[in-house]
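Quick one: structure for this chain?
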Amino acid sequence: MGVKRLNPVTPGTRFRVANTFAELTESKPEKKLIISIKKSGGRNNQGKMTMRYIGGGHKQQYRIIDFKRNKNGVAATVKTIEYDPNRTCFIALIEYTDGEKSYILAPNGLKVGQTVMSGTNATPDVGNTMPLSQMPLGSIIHNIEINPGQGGRIVRSAGTSAQLSSRDGKYAVIKLPSGETRMILSTCCATIGTLSNPDHNLENKGKAGRTRWLGRRPRTRPAAMNPVDHPMGGGEGRAKGGQARSRKGTGLKGHKTRNVHKSSSKLILERRKK
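Got it. Here's what it folds into:
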């Protein structure tokens, strides 16, 4: 765990801050748990660009992650900790006692040979999945379901975690990484622990080419466009002033985009920090 600063032997390594990947124990993924990814380059079925700034990138394979963890009462042993190009945190390959293998999101501190379990009989240890109704108050959790049986939907990025604050009737009160406090049904499941790779935010790619390897093309500033392309384009020289606008003309920097009639608004007790 940690990052390393590379020696400036080339312009691309002068500002490079890379991950040490000290936690990883395997470099090749499990063949039965990967599928191919077809890249669109931001084009639709007619070949027309519908999403800008997408294209290129290294060939990747998708690792099938078990977000549901619904194999209750069956113990599993952690076999490897691996890198996943499709997400910021690391993943762990586990093997159940009946021989089935699956990938899960690797929490921080999970070691090879450790046993994990899911279900109501699981203990609140790192890597175990259990309903929110069975967890001790104050537990640090991740991979949280929003609807029972749906599988984890929130708190899945590197180094993130939420906290189980309290319980109110059939709901559990969760404090999310954004600072938002909301209620989730107590029958929903979550996994104990903080996600791995907490130093991901300290990394520095060092050069523009590394971003191209990730499939991201250069982004054009709106002020550098023509008026026909963007509301903030045009003008003589470096024109400034006026209200910041999106490409479609809606306001930015404080313009609320959430639907005020959204049904889940009543479950949010405290909004995220601005």
